[in-house]
């Protein structure tokens, strides 16, 4: 039986295929096992510049302070520069979904940090277990095939900054075994055990149940489903891009303008995919948009209704020869 590659070898293989930015990599390090394993692996296999980035969100009091101190000590022992951002998310995210706001603030900060450091590459430590949890979470929400892609291996955060995830095919048990083998401690985030959050219930209750009673390799199966859905989506987007180019007219301000005759001629499944692609391209709120919502838009496109209001403040209006879609100005600053 072939020996499995070590965690650092898996990271090196990913970097070789990705061609890392020569100006260096910003590493998001929380202090948890996954990000500590990524940091230790990169320190071993990457000869370029590494910048350790820690986002202190101030949500867990002394525990958050201890996480920051742990990351600072680890960066110092590895002789790597540390960039620390302290924020009071309770105040910053007032009136918003805290989890979504925290994610948005963190990625905004990482993107700005990469620009300041003169690099265009950021890496986070999402694992195969995170992928399985995400795919299952989307499935339970009633997503279409697009949602089954789960977490992307790499994606653009803005016009020039790329986010990469070298551990996305590595399971959490292998990561912890690797850290134990090099006597490297890590921090445990107590909020990850709070079953008030749906993702935590999936992690601690549902996935173990499925693994115990139905399929011991359920995480690997879900991660594979995510990879296959991503491959399908890439092929689909090539066709959607051509159809979008044929149907779209010059913008009217911030509004997306489509030719009615082109849109109304498309099949429902193509319309669902086309509008999902537009939503993602425009950066419109996706958190409340699922399969049923895009199906509703697709069916509306082939109806006689004059207008359609969607979650997140997007409104579609049918005119004589066009369909116009626009995000209400009052919602523009709440896109996540």
Walkthrough of the structure:
There is one protein chain. The protein is α/β, with parallel strands linked by helices and 336 residues long. The protein folds into two domains: 7-131 and 145-192, HUPs (Rossmann fold, 3-Layer(aba) Sandwich); 253-334, no CATH class. The chain is 49% helix and 15% strand. The protein has helices at 7-18, 33-45, 62-77, 89-92, 98-116, 128-141, 172-181, 198-213, 218-247, 260-264, 268-282, 291-301; strands at 25-28, 50-56, 82-86, 121-123, 154-156, 162-164, 248-252, 255-259, 307-309, 314-318, 322-327. A six-stranded mixed sheet has the order 3-2-1-4-6-5, with helices on both faces. Strands 7-8-11-10-9 form a five-stranded antiparallel sheet. Helix 1 (7-18) crosses helix 2 (33-45). It is globular, with a radius of gyration of 22 Å. The relative contact order is 0.10.
Q: SSE layout and pairings?
A:
Layout: H1 7-18, E1 25-28, H2 33-45, E2 50-56, H3 62-77, E3 82-86, H4 89-92, H5 98-116, E4 121-123, H6 128-141, E5 154-156, E6 162-164, H7 172-181, H8 198-213, H9 218-247, E7 248-252, E8 255-259, H10 260-264, H11 268-282, H12 291-301, E9 307-309, E10 314-318, E11 322-327
Parallel strand pairs: 1-2, 1-4, 2-3, 4-6
Antiparallel strand pairs: 5-6, 7-8, 8-11, 9-10, 10-11
Order of helices and strands: HEHEHEHHEHEEHHHEEHHHEEE
Task: Tell me the number of structural domains.
Answer: 2
The main sheet comes to: 6 strands, mixed
Q: What does the average pLDDT come to?
A: 87
Which CATH C-level class of the largest domain is it? Alpha Beta
> What is the CATH architecture assignment of the largest domain?
3-Layer(aba) Sandwich
Strand content: 5-15%
Please, how many helices? Answer: 12
Low-pLDDT stretches: 331-336
């Amino acid at each position: 039986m072939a020996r499995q590659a070590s965690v650092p070898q898996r990271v090196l293989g990913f970097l070789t295929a990705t061609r890392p930015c020569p100006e260096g990599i910003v590493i998001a390090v929380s202090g948890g096992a996954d990000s500590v394993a990524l940091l230790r692996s990169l320190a071993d296999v990457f000869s370029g510049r590494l910048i350790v980035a820690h986002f202190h969100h101030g949500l867990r009091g002394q525990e958050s302070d201890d996480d920051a101190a742990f990351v600072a000590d680890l960066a110092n022992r590895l002789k790597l520069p540390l960039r620390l951002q302290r924020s009071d998310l309770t105040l910053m995210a007032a009136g918003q979904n805290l989890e979504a706001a925290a994610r948005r603030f963190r990625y905004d900060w990482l993107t700005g940090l990469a620009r300041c450091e003169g690099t265009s590459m950021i890496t986070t430590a999402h694992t195969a277990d995170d992928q399985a949890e995400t795919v299952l979470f989307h499935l339970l929400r009633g997503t279409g095939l697009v949602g089954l892609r789960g977490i992307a291996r790499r994606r653009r955060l803005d016009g020039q900054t790329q986010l990469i995830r070298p551990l996305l095919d590595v399971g959490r048990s292998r990561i912890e075994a690797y850290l134990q083998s090099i006597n490297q401690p890590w921090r445990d985030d107590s909020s990850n055990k709070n079953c008030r959050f749906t993702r935590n219930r999936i992690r601690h209750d549902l996935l173990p149940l499925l693994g115990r009673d139905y399929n011991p390799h359920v995480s690997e199966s879900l991660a594979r489903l995510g990879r296959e859905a991503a491959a399908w989506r890439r092929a689909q987007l090539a066709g959607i891009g051509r159809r979008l180019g044929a149907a779209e007219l010059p913008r009217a301000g911030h509004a997306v303008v489509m030719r009615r005759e082109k849109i109304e001629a498309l099949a429902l499944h193509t319309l669902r995919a086309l509008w999902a692609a537009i939503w993602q391209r425009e950066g419109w709120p996706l958190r409340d948009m699922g399969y049923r919502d895009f199906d509703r838009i697709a069916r509306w496109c082939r109806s006689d209704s004059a207008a359609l209001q969607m979650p997140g403040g997007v409104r579609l209006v049918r005119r004589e020869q066009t369909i116009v879609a626009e995000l209400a100005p009052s919602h523009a600053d709440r896109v996540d």
